[in-house]
Design a protein that fits this description.
By secondary structure, the chain is of the alpha/beta class. The chain has 11 helices and 12 strands.
Amino acid sequence: MSDMYCPVIRVDGLIGDEFRIYTELNENQLRHYFEPAEEGIFIAETANVIRRALDAGYQPISLLVEEKYVGTEAEDIIERFSQIAEGEKCRIPVYVSSLGNMSKMTGYNLTRGVLAAFRRKQMSPVEEVCRDAHTIAVLEHVENPTNIGAIFRSAAAMGIDAVLISEGCADPLQRRAIRVSVGTVFQIPWTRIPREVWPEDTVEWFHDHDFTLVSMALKNDTISIDDPRLRECSHIAICLGNEGFGLTDDTILMSDYTVKIPMREGVDSLNVAAASAVAFWEITRARAD
């Protein structure tokens, strides 16, 4: 390991401005850390999640690791950080401390003491993210980062090719969303739909590229999730809405089909994350058949 580019720094208390990203800055401040010149920062927790971020090509800034993991669970991560630092000729420090001190400094009750700060990537245009996709998830105003993380995990597990999120959605790179997704947010292509093109222009793009837009909604005029017509769609975009009010009327009106998951009497709805898992499984299974 190169001490020049990837120094190991023992930490017993608060240190320096560069450590503020772990101890002081909130999600919004992290997201806008480098603005207006660049995208911001996100924090990834646990060794497996950090590995997935590295595999996806995210640029690390620093690592904060519990002392007992330096030569065990985090050993390969530290080596990868060192290789990146030497290759880029940049400084990527590794901060080492006790779990108690880490929890005190960060304000979180940590269970696995491995955290890393990464630079965000520039958002890709919708057209690029969806270029080779056949099945897309579209999230409209899903506000809870826990739901965002769970939806990404289901999308990755069920073979959804890409995820698009409206401007009203929680950030998929929020700490909680990343943790709930178990890092699958790094494994599936996604981007944010600009406010000015949703829904009209985006729906028009879907139709121009042979996508059938399916809205998941609790409406009377619906088809079932296992309707044979959905099997005939060569390209499909599955739209899920807000936790409280669901999809907007405009989105539903512009959809090709409105779909409802059949439920027993007395149960009015599923949580949006649970509904996404059912929808993704049924639609990808049916189309694979």
